[in-house]
């Protein structure tokens, strides 16, 4: 297999980004979304010796994205986490200590869900574990980084599901539904819990 030059590699990633943007064409976008410039490692974790040790331990080479996001817990509580996407995993780190609390291999992610409306919510689906609902103003960049990292790792496209009513698994026995509706003052989001029938 031929090795890409740095210029060819950058061009390939730009092509992947354009393809990703075309797939999101049906989603209603904020005007400001198209104007944002991407700064992948916002928290500058790649320069942190603790993070370098974590990457080395897990056989990973680069931080593709980092930023503080909000995760909606299984009880509906909001909590800030540092999200880090590498070339092999998705990490949730404690905000103050940069201690790893959750690590998910990108190969275990089945798909990502988001609404058709201009909001900051997205769900990462992990069938072998639990799904995770996040809120971030940098959703587009997160999803793009996940898709590129997933493709680089698996050579397959990471599926994106766009709908305004989304079910996601919070544990073995409970599925939550999140619904998005457009109102006069913006997008309204509601969470509903329901038990899985065995």
- Text of the CATH class: Mainly Beta
Strand order of the largest sheet: 4-3-2-1-7-6-5-8
Tally of DSSP helical segments: 3
Strand portion, in percent?
35-45%
Q: What is the gyration radius calculated from CA atoms? A: 17 Å
Structural class: alpha+beta
Under the CATH scheme, the architecture is Roll
Q: Give the distance, in angstroms, between the N- and C-terminal Cα atoms.
A: 48 Å
Instruction: Give the total of beta strands.
Output: 11
The largest sheet, given as strand count, sense and whether it forms a barrel, is: 8 strands, mixed
Helix residue percentage: 10-25%
N-to-C order of helices and strands: HHEEEEEEEHEEEE
CATH topology: PH-domain like
CATH superfamily: Pleckstrin-homology domain (PH domain)/Phosphotyrosine-binding domain (PTB)
Shape: globular
InterPro entries: Myosin_TH1
Pfam families: Myosin_TH1
GO molecular function, one term: cytoskeletal motor activity
Protein name: TH1 domain-containing protein
In short:
By secondary structure, the chain is α+β, with helices and mostly antiparallel strands. It is built from three helices and eleven strands, in the order ααβββββββαββββ.
Question: Could you describe the 3D structure shown?
Answer:
With 198 residues, the chain is α+β, with helices and mostly antiparallel strands. The chain has one domain (6-163): Roll (PH-domain like). Helix content is 22%, strand content 37%. It has 3 helices and 11 strands, in the order ααβββββββαββββ. The protein has helices at 6-23, 49-57, 139-154, and strands spanning 63-72, 78-86, 89-93, 100-105, 111-114, 121-125, 132-135, 159-162, 165-171, 174-183, 186-195. The strands form 2 sheets. Strands 4-3-2-1-7-6-5-8 form an 8-stranded mixed sheet. A 3-stranded antiparallel sheet has the order 9-10-11, with no helix packed on it. Residues 27-198 form the TH1 domain. InterPro entries: Myosin_TH1. It holds the Pfam family Myosin_TH1.
């Amino acid at each position: 297999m031929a090795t890409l030059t740095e210029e060819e590699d950058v061009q390939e990633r730009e092509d992947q980004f354009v393809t990703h943007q075309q797939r999101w064409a049906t989603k209603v976008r904020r005007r400001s979304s198209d104007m944002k410039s991407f700064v992948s490692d916002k928290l500058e974790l790649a320069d942190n010796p603790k993070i370098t040790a974590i990457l080395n331990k897990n056989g990973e080479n680069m931080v593709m994205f980092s930023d503080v996001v909000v995760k909606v817990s299984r009880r509906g509580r909001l909590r800030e986490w540092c999200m880090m996407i590498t070339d092999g995993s998705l990490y949730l780190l404690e905000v103050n200590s940069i201690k790893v609390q959750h690590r998910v291999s990108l190969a275990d992610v089945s798909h990502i869900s988001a609404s058709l409306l201009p909001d900051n919510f997205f769900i990462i689906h992990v069938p072998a574990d639990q799904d995770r609902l996040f809120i971030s103003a940098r959703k587009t960049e997160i999803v793009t980084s996940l898709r590129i990292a997933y493709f680089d790792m698996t050579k397959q496209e990471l599926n994106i599901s766009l709908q305004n009513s989304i079910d996601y698994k919070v544990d073995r026995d409970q599925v939550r539904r999140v619904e998005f509706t457009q109102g006069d003052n913006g997008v309204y989001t509601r969470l509903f819990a329901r038990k899985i029938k065995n």
